[in-house]
């Protein structure tokens, strides 16, 4: 079978890499993909993820048997619906179901209706009542733009003054455009975060391991929020007991609730969790796709074929007994451009990739996923994005995976490269 992966980042590289390992797969294609993915996928770099006509045409021309959609934007725009209408098997939710990520107000109302634990909240369409609300409430809160804002539309506010500023930025200055016309003001949850993944055809469910990412730019969780500076799996905070609670109280009622509401959910549900000191999980966010960079360690850690899950979900015949194992641990360290998440230069030469294992080292322990690279004139790679590489290693435990990942990072160099030194430290300091 030919499988088409939509997207071009580190997450899509990791998915394509894993899919390419399957005996069921003849060819992996990617649109637009990236030069760094060419070792595992044939890339159609002129086909953008937003161009559904071109993607349908590509599927027809290349006899694609399954489309796997990586990022949220094409899902929210209805790419999965469009492809299903054209007769293709698709891994990814409909636009209607993608509102779980695309609208925070939708997700919160859904959770409230179905009794799914999450922070208390109010939704506002106008500035004045929102300001009144945060003043009356006093104390800290979290202000969120309703729509998609590339992970940046969340303001953690220590007091009502900060909340008012965040509200003005979103609703008055339109910092996130239309996404901030409506806002959700949430209670601030304390605890430790983890993300958990459920693959589903709308009815049957297979869960994956839990992971933790590192959103802040600097060591010790300081500095600005980024798309993610690293991730690891499994997450020790996610004990068997927490997992059972999460499944029973969150995953199952969400999948059942979406089906009952007439919007069956197909694809992977990313559950962003806050786990309190008593081990009680609450939903911080839903995402309607795999996490980036969490997918990188998940795919490297996972033993077993991903294809039966993707295909089973897409075809509505997911086998809940699909064998999967998660031996040891995996760690992904993101190497980012100087200045990220703000301004950064592009076109900086990257050295040492082959030494670090290139795409896959001989002992199969380290894989370097490309997030923001392009082919340089000399045939090597240069930087083309903020997050450049996801250096990912597996090991018998977190310590070994982490040591391997940082050893590989040390082999790679580009001017101004920045990476956190403490990825997965929380798992080791326990
Ligand atoms: P979101 O885009 O909703 O996942 O929010 C981004 C990040 O903000 C989360 O990963 C959390 O670190 C933090 N966050 C969001 N909502 C809350 C909340 N209610 N309480 C505490 N932290 C939160
Ligand atoms: N790493 C967080 C996300 O993918 O949303």
What's the helix and strand layout?
Elements: E1 2-7, H1 10-20, E2 27-32, E3 42-43, H2 52-61, E4 64-69, H3 72-76, H4 79-85, E5 90-91, H5 99-102, H6 104-113, E6 121-124, H7 127-137, E7 141-145, E8 154-157, H8 160-171, E9 183-186, E10 192-200, E11 205-207, E12 212-213, E13 216-218, E14 222-225, E15 230-233, H9 240-260, E16 267-275, E17 281-287, H10 295-301, H11 307-315, E18 329-336, E19 349-350, E20 366-370, E21 373-375, E22 381-383, E23 387-395, H12 398-411, H13 425-428
Percent of residues in helices: 25-40%
Number of discrete helical segments:
13
Radius of gyration: 21 Å
Global shape: globular
The biggest sheet amounts to:
5 strands, parallel
Mean of all residue-level pLDDT scores: 93
The CATH superfamily of the largest domain is ATP-grasp fold, B domain
Report the structural category: alpha+beta
CATH fold node name of the largest domain? D-amino Acid Aminotransferase, Chain A, domain 1
CATH class value of the largest domain: Alpha Beta
Chain oligomer state: single chain
Relative strand content = 25-35%
The structural domain count equals: 3
Distance, first to last CA: 44 Å
Number of strands: 23
Which cofactor or ligand species appear? adenosine monophosphate, glycine
CATH architecture of the largest domain: 2-Layer Sandwich
Order of strands side by side in the largest beta sheet?
A: 3-2-1-4-5
């Amino acid at each position: 079978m030919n499988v088409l992966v939509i997207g071009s980042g580190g997450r899509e590289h990791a998915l394509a890499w894993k899919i390419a390992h399957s005996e069921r797969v003849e060819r992996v294609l990617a649109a637009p993909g990236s030069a760094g993915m060419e070792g595992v996928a044939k890339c159609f770099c002129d086909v953008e993820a937003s161009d559904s006509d071109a993607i349908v045409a590509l599927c027809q021309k290349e006899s694609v048997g399954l489309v796997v959609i990586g990022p949220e934007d094409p899902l929210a725009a209805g790419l999965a619906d469009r492809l299903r209408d054209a007769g293709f098997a698709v891994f990814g939710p409909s636009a209607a179901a993608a509102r779980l990520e695309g609208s925070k107000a939708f997700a919160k109302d859904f959770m409230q209706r179905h009794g799914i634990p999450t922070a208390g909240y109010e939704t506002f369409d106008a500035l004045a009542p929102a300001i009144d609300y945060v003043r009356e409430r006093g104390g800290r809160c979290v202000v969120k733009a309703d729509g998609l804002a590339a992970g940046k539309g969340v303001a953690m506010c220590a007091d009502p003054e900060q909340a008012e500023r965040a509200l003005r930025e979103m609703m008055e200055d339109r910092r996130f455009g239309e996404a901030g016309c409506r806002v959700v003001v949430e209670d601030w949850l304390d605890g430790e975060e983890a993300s958990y993944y459920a693959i589903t055809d709308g009815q049957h469910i297979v869960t994956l391991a839990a992971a933790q990412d590192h959103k802040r730019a600097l060591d010790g969780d300081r500095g600005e929020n980024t798309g993610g500076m690293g991730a690891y799996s499994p997450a020790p905070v996610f004990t068997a007991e927490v997992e059972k609670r999460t499944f029973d109280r969150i995953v199952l009622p969400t999948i059942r609730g979406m089906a009952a509401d007439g919007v069956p959910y197909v694809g992977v549900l990313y559950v962003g969790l806050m786990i309190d000191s008593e081990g009680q999980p609450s939903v911080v966010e839903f995402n309607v796709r795999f996490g980036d960079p969490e997918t990188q360690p998940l795919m490297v850690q996972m033993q077993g074929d991903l294809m039966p899950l993707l295909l089973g979900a897409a075809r509505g015949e997911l086998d809940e007994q699909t064998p999967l194992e998660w031996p040891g641990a995996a760690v992904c360290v993101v190497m980012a451009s100087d200045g990220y998440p703000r301004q950064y230069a592009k076109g900086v030469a990257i050295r040492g990739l082959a030494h670090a294992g290139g795409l896959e080292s001989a002992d199969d322990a380290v894989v370097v996923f490309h997030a923001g690279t392009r082919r340089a004139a000399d045939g090597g790679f240069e930087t083309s994005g903020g997050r450049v590489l996801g250096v990912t290693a597996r090991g018998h435990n977190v310590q070994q995976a982490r040591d391997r990942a940082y050893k590989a990072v040390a082999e790679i160099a580009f001017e101004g490269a920045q990476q956190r030194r403490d990825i997965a430290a929380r798992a080791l300091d326990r």
